[in-house]
Amino acid sequence: MLKSVTARDYMATYLVTFKTDTDVLEAVNSLLQYRISGAPVVDEQNHMLGIISEKDCLKAVLSAAYHDDLGATVGELMTKNVETVDADISILDVAELFLKTNIRRYPVLHEGRLVGQISRRDILRAFVRFVNPKDR
Q1: Going by DSSP bridges, is the β-strand pair 85-86/48-53 parallel, antiparallel, or unpaired?
Q2: List of the chain residues with pLDDT < 50
Q3: Distance between CA 87 and CA 83 in Å, rounded?
Q4: What is the predicted pLDDT for the residue at 76?
Q5: Where exactly are the structural domains of the chain?
Q6: Contact call for residues 92 and 2 (beta carbons, < 8 A)
Q7: What would the pLDDT profile of 59-92 be if each residue is shown by its tens digit?
Q8: What is the pTM of this model?
Q9: What is the distance between the alpha carbons of residues 91 and 116, in angstroms, rounded to a whole number?
Q10: Which fold has domain 2-135?
Q11: 112 backbone φψ class: left, alpha, beta (φ>0; ψ -120 to 50)
């Protein structure tokens, strides 16, 4: 019953996250080190504040190149309006969201706090496990 499988069942739970006061150079180094294209920005209680992406960081690159200023923080550059999903949403509903948007991963929230992230690949992994029960 793939309909009863939720985002919580397949989401990644060990995430790189940043605070708003993180220096952009530190964030870029982390993105490169962990080979990720972006990461959630959270407060001390793990409430989602935004996402910092490679594209957001490119703003700092241009600012440094044109204005000799690399003093930006994650909070100044992050995307603030982030689409999220609830931990208890069906992965079929998440799959439909992926088909309707260009988004490749959604932060997963439970009671307003970041608890994980679910990607297109996670949905595919759930599907394979469903059709091949021996791979569970």
Answers
A1: unpaired
A2: none
A3: 13
A4: 93
A5: 2-135
A6: yes
A7: 888 877 777 666 789 999 999 999 999 999 999 9
A8: 0.86
A9: 14
A10: CBS-domain (3.10.580)
A11: left
